[in-house]
Amino acid sequence: MLNTPPCLPAATAVDPLEVIVLRAELASHIERLTRQRDGAHESVIPRVWFARLSHANHPQHVVHEPALCVLAQGSKRVLLGSDVYVYDPNQFLVVSQNLPVASQVIDATPESPYLGVRIDLDPKEITSLALELGERIAPPTCACQRGISTGDLTPSLLDAVLRLVRLADTPADIALLAPLIQREILYRLLTSPLGWKLAQLAAAESNSHRIARAINWLRANFDAPLRIDELAREVHMSASSLHHHFKAVTAMSPLQYQKQLRLQEARRVMLAEHVDAGTASRRVGYESQSQFTREYSRFFGEPPVRDIRRLREAQMRG
């Protein structure tokens, strides 16, 4: 049974009129900028993506990089380990670490499609602004260290997101105004009840900062054998402390994290480069193809050959 993560702020019961008006305009912009076509669409605004989907979909396995996600319409479920995060236009999702997740649109129809915007966050900008804000960032409200959270979407945050999206209509303004609005959005996040989670990345000796370094190391070396003692020394932690804090942030052990990276990369390679399962398994670090097939089937629900065939058929239909 999946668990709902602790320490999530409660959603607002009733939408203020201001939020309803802002959300309607955001939905209109996303529909127009995606040309009413399903899929993920890169914006002319740096680090801004739009998403549209006219039907619920199967879980999509990705490594979610640090980002703010806001919905104008529909709802989505994100799974991290056994934790489940569900959000809709009343909430935002913020990811502060690189996390392997399964995301699934659960509320979308042709008449009322899922519409969302993703704004990628720069860890360096987080660090810079967090240090500048200092004590203006609220202290932790709980011991939950997960690198992903949902929070109430306030009119001020939604307004800033909308102003950023509007810049797509005035490309000449993007270079000057987009960085200013993105900094405001980051300010809104850092001064929200969840801001302390982002701010922890700014503290060089914090556990969150060290886990971020461990995650970056694993992403760069996912195809190499994992030796926990070496990784712990790399981030200046004991092996037991690394394991404890890594699981607190990612909901999985370093070995489980590496395994998910390997399986997702093998899937990408087979799909994009048309290599067979044996070749893909060796490229991502597996010595045993039978072990790869077992773990792949357990993770994705089907053996590699059948899974890739299904994905290619879905691509052709799309």
Structure, briefly:
With 318 residues, the protein is an alpha+beta fold. The protein is built from 12 helices and 10 strands. The protein has helices spanning 17-33, 123-133, 155-166, 171-190, 195-199, 207-220, 228-234, 239-250, 254-273, 277-283, 289-300, 304-317, and strands at 39-42, 48-53, 60-64, 67-73, 75-80, 83-87, 91-95, 99-107, 114-120, 148-152.
Any chance you could write out the topology, listing elements then pairs?
Layout: H1 17-33, E1 39-42, E2 48-53, E3 60-64, E4 67-73, E5 75-80, E6 83-87, E7 91-95, E8 99-107, E9 114-120, H2 123-133, E10 148-152, H3 155-166, H4 171-190, H5 195-199, H6 207-220, H7 228-234, H8 239-250, H9 254-273, H10 277-283, H11 289-300, H12 304-317
Antiparallel strand pairs: 1-2, 2-9, 3-8, 4-7, 4-9, 5-6, 5-8, 7-10
Helix pairs in contact: 1-3, 2-4, 3-4, 6-8, 7-8, 9-10
